[in-house]
Write a structure and sequence with these properties.
The chain is built from 11 helices and 12 strands. By secondary structure, the protein is of the alpha/beta class. It is globular, with a radius of gyration of 20 Å. The structure holds nicotinamide-adenine-dinucleotide. The site of nicotinamide-adenine-dinucleotide has 22 residues, from loops. It comes from Thalassospira permensis NBRC 106175. Belongs to the isocitrate and isopropylmalate dehydrogenases family. InterPro entries: IsoCit/isopropylmalate_DH_CS, IsoPropMal-DH-like_dom.
Length: 352
């Protein structure tokens, strides 16, 4: 089974190295038959190939059995015509990874703002308000005059339906509760379209308790009653923002896994950014990328009927939860004392 690692920028290489060591340990324990390749993406690719991601790499990712992408420092890339392409967006669009699955849960023994929470945000991943992925040509932002900037948001019937159907299936496998988050009271056409398709997908799934919330109310409700939610489906930017809020409620940004999923492919990707402020210091928390890898192994296991991949995912998930119980086995962002590499070494020992 071919594993493609794309370390990315900032803390990406550090957390990807830990993820590789952990996967190698799981490979030894479960005889998964993993073969690893690492390819440059982000600044390393810009230097070598003149672009932060190349068409060849996108095709390579399409063919990989398991693909893992580190965070990318898009804010510091040059303009697109000088090679600064958002690799994350390019992969999501080209591989049609339309659902971004972002679970957040409270871990036993780990201090968190939320007392009790175990939810999954399913965020539409290929359209919405992100200017670099809403247009066939050009971008979704224009400046008709020096004093006027406009941003366009794309919401399609098909895009809204398929992500909602995905979320409804997930809710049916979990606790059977789906919350549709929107702002259709103001964005009557665009969010109205999203809402009607989400309602349709939820009704077709059948047997779900369905709730609808405006995004601003949802931001409060997540803090007030985080335990009231199971699966939440929403548009791209709302999902991006709410999932950071949920991660923080669970204990921190370094804690939440994220999987980009389509009908054919999936890519694991940490839900946080490249954290340039701590890059190279060996203090980053690798848990988000590791939990993304748990999601990826589980997805691949379900797709291929390989229970060994799901068992490996389960063992990794449990070992991470065990480590988070004690400050002695946490990283600095969680008031622990382990470095990024040491967290990886202890984890490797525990999953043998
Ligand atoms: P960020 O998520 O990189 O960092 C926010 C804060 O959280 C920083 O203080 C950082 O040190 C901390 N943090 C993040 N991940 C951590 C981890 N694993 N362990 C410990 N601390 C962690 O967000 P930002 O500073 O807004 O963005 C930095 C760059 O990342 C920008 O170029 C942005 O565009 C990009 N970005 C990329 C992704 C992605 O690749 N998926 C997502 C968000 C932002």
């Amino acid at each position: 089974m071919d594993v493609l690692l794309l370390p990315g920028d900032g803390i990406g290489p550090e957390i990807t190295a830990v993820t590789r060591n952990v996967l190698e340990a799981l490979d030894r324990s479960f005889s998964l038959g993993l073969k690893f390749t690492s390819e440059d993406v982000g600044f390393a690719s810009l230097e070598k190939h003149g672009a932060t991601i190349t068409p060849e790499l996108i095709e390579r990712a399409r063919k990989a059995d398991l693909a893992i992408l580190g965070p990318v420092d898009t804010a510091h890339y040059p303009p697109a015509d000088q090679g600064g392409i958002n690799p994350s967006a390019a992969l999501r669009i080209n591989l049609d990874l339309y659902a971004n699955v972002r679970p957040s849960k409270v871990f036993e023994g780990l201090p968190a703002l939320a007392r009790n929470m175990d939810l999954v945000i399913v965020r539409e991943n290929t359209e919405g308000f992100y200017a670099d992925r809403t247009m066939y040509a050009g971008t979704g932002e224009v400046m008709p005059t020096p004093d006027l900037a406009l941003a366009m948001r794309k919401v399609t019937r098909q895009g809204s339906y398929r992500v909602s159907a995905f979320a409804a299936r997930l809710a049916a496998k979990r606790r059977g509760h789906l919350t549709i988050v929107h702002k259709a009271n103001v964005l009557k056409l665009s969010d109205g379209l999203f809402l009607s398709e989400a309602e349709k997908a939820a009704a077709e799934q059948g047997g779900l308790a369905v709730r609808e919330e405006h995004v601003d109310a949802m931001a409060s409700l997540l803090v007030r009653t985080p335990d009231a939610f199971d699966v939440i489906v929403t548009t791209n930017m709302f999902g991006d923002i709410l999932s950071n809020e949920a991660a923080e409620l669970a204990g921190g940004l370094g804690l939440s896994g994220s999987l980009n999923v389509g009908d054919e492919n999936a890519i694991a990707q940490a839900s946080h950014g490249s954290a340039p402020d701590i890059a190279g210091k060996n203090i980053a928390n690798p848990v988000s990328l590791l939990l993304s890898t748990v999601l990826l192994l589980d997805w691949k296991g379900a797709e291929t009927g390989r229970s060994d991949l799901q068992q490996a995912a389960n063992r990794l998930d449990k070992a991470i939860s065990e480590m988070l119980k004690s400050p002695d086995t946490r990283t600095a962002d969680l008031a622990g004392s382990l470095s990024c590499r040491d967290f990886g070494s202890v984890l490797v020992d525990r999953i043998r």
